[in-house]
Amino acid sequence: MSFDIDRIRANFPALDLKDGRQARVFLDNPAGTQVTQGVVDRMTDYLLRSNANCGGAFFTSKRTDELLDQAHQGMADLLHASSKDEIIFGPNMTSLTFSLSRTLTGQVDEGDEIVVSRLDHDANIQPWVRLAEDCGATVRWVDFDPNDGRLCLESLDELLCERTRIVAVGLASNLIGTINPIAKIAEKAHRVGALMFVDAVHYAPHGSIDVAALGADFLVCSPYKFLSLIHI
Ligand SMILES: Cc1ncc(COP(=O)(O)O)c(C=O)c1O
């Protein structure tokens, strides 16, 4: 089967944009992707025909609830989550991670430890550093080997202990592309009773994700980086 690039490009209205007569080249995908006409149509349809509060007894509210249900189910299917109730949408990964880290304050005490990695995006570090500061916990850093770009899992073994509450590691590095063995890391984290938080922002546009197989207690990704497309 041939890959019909022209047919695919025709789905993206932004590709018709010109600077004067010069066609544009979009190279900023990491900061956010262009959307298809289908995404624009679905959003327009929602704003024109639904656009209401949730949980009301009236028609547009019911349509809103229905669409939200479908969106949660679509994301659950994409991530192989066991239920749509496991899915939460938010402004972006950074905000969601900060919000989640706030909700975990009750589970982190003085003297506890949180593990982060030097291969991670700051959005998967600062929320945990702040949480540790607020709770009197200590942040432990897993290094990576500059020769092959892999996380030093042996040092993770040394860092993990019964005081470890959270292990926060990315599925793939946005800097150098390393794909981390999350299932293995999660197993180690769970062995000491810690929660496994996975930043899948960089990986999600490229590969299939199964949250259960990864052993993730929490997994975050950013649909605006994969064309805002989920199948509903
Ligand atoms: C690996 C990784 N994690 C997290 C983020 C932050 O994502 P968001 O913009 O959704 O907050 C980025 C953004 O580029 C990223 O590359």
Give a verbal description of the structure.
With 232 residues, the protein is α/β, with parallel strands linked by helices. It has a domain at 93-223: 3-Layer(aba) Sandwich (Aspartate Aminotransferase, domain 2), CATH 3.40.640. The protein has 8 helices and 9 strands. The protein has helices spanning 5-9, 37-49, 59-79, 93-103, 126-135, 153-159, 182-191, 211-214; strands at residues 18-19, 22-23, 113-117, 138-142, 144-145, 150-151, 164-170, 195-199, 218-220. Strands 4-3-7-8-9 form a 5-stranded parallel sheet, sandwiched between helices. The chain has a two-stranded antiparallel ribbon with strand order 1-2. Strands 5-6 form a two-stranded antiparallel sheet. β7 (164-170), α7 and β8 form a beta-alpha-beta unit. α4 packs parallel to α5 (126-135). The model has no long low-confidence stretch (mean pLDDT 95). Pyridoxal-5'-phosphate is lined by residues 30, 92-94, 121, 123-124, 170, 174, 199, 201-202, 222. Pyridoxal-5'-phosphate (PLP) binds at residues 30, 92-94, 121, 123-124, 170, 174, 199, 201-202, 222.
Topology at a glance:
Layout: H1 5-9, E1 18-19, E2 22-23, H2 37-49, H3 59-79, H4 93-103, E3 113-117, H5 126-135, E4 138-142, E5 144-145, E6 150-151, H6 153-159, E7 164-170, H7 182-191, E8 195-199, H8 211-214, E9 218-220
Parallel strand pairs: 3-4, 3-7, 7-8, 8-9
Antiparallel strand pairs: 1-2, 5-6
Bound molecules: pyridoxal-5'-phosphate (PLP).
The site of pyridoxal-5'-phosphate has 13 residues, from helix 4.
